[in-house]
């Protein structure tokens, strides 16, 4: 029986996917539920599992864009696995199958034969393209030039004495280094990210406001409670929980920042879904922490860890990246000191975190060294006024600089569930 495998729908509004990588080869025997391909949608990279066991026939090439519901391969379910079926996958065990060994051996023999043939007739190579005659070599040496810098006009591209005489050394231009380039197709996910970034720049009245946060109170809390927190909950007490809860508080104070434009209407939400920008193997991904307003420090840290692992392992789903009412991006993990993050449409605001640097600051009339983080809020000025944007960022700053009172209700152990 021949089974037609069709592209399943990765999610609502997605009409086509791109074959990123075939994990098997044409004619391989595959097991049911074995991952046979990685496909890119405009939101995520997903694995395509075999729907049955059998011999596979591929109907699409890597890089092909195929519609949802289209046939991408056939599986002959009546076929039986061969003795070496387990080694026919790409990147199989070290031994490989017999065909691969024979191909490699034939290739080695051919290369040896070709090398031997060239070595046996060195005279032929003296007229090869780019080879200088003895007289030309002497002139080029005097000019401190290499043969690769000269175009030969002699037989088969040979560099003649006249070529060497006319050659002019490059003034101030680096030579001799590697100047190669390569071209590769962008994944559908990367292309969609690019489109959305351009869309945000072209369709929103985007502005960015900045502030700085003294991270000393959070440093002190983490220093005292992070080990106990990790032992109790199995996750670390990081900065993300403080920032997420500070954002939740600020969004309640300034609901316009938790709104979106839909045509001529503004949609405001009474819940907070925080999109967190994380770097995965396929590029930037933005999974969503649902109903962050209902989460504790432990809940936020556990969800951040879960989503980050799934993004890193390429297991994140479209549903986990759909939606979101506000975004937090942490460029500080890569060493960024300051940036203007781009809004994640159709959202209206994004908070950029940056690295923490010890800086001299004035405290009660004295200069002290404090761990300072610059924060940035990019917002859509069409629905968020300057007063609201600045007020929002100040509210975030206040909560981070006074977390015990504003985020923990003056009860640290209860807030951390210790």
Describe this structure in a few short sentences:
With 418 residues, this protein is α+β, with helices and mostly antiparallel strands. It has 12 helices and 18 strands. It is 32% helix and 24% strand.
What does this structure look like?
The structure is a single chain. With 418 residues, the chain is of the alpha+beta class. The chain has three domains: 2-89, Beta Barrel (OB fold (Dihydrolipoamide Acetyltransferase, E2P)), CATH 2.40.50.100; 121-169, E3-binding domain (Dihydrolipoamide Transferase, Irregular); 188-415, Chloramphenicol Acetyltransferase (2-Layer Sandwich), CATH 3.30.559.10. The chain contains twelve helices and 18 strands. The strands form four sheets. Strands 9, 12, 13, 14, 15, 16, 17 and 18 form an eight-stranded mixed sheet that branches. Strands 1-8-6-3 form a four-stranded antiparallel sheet, with no helix packed on it. A four-stranded antiparallel sheet has the order 5-4-2-7, with no helix packed on it. The longest helix has 23 residues, at 98-120. It is extended. 29% of the residues are buried.
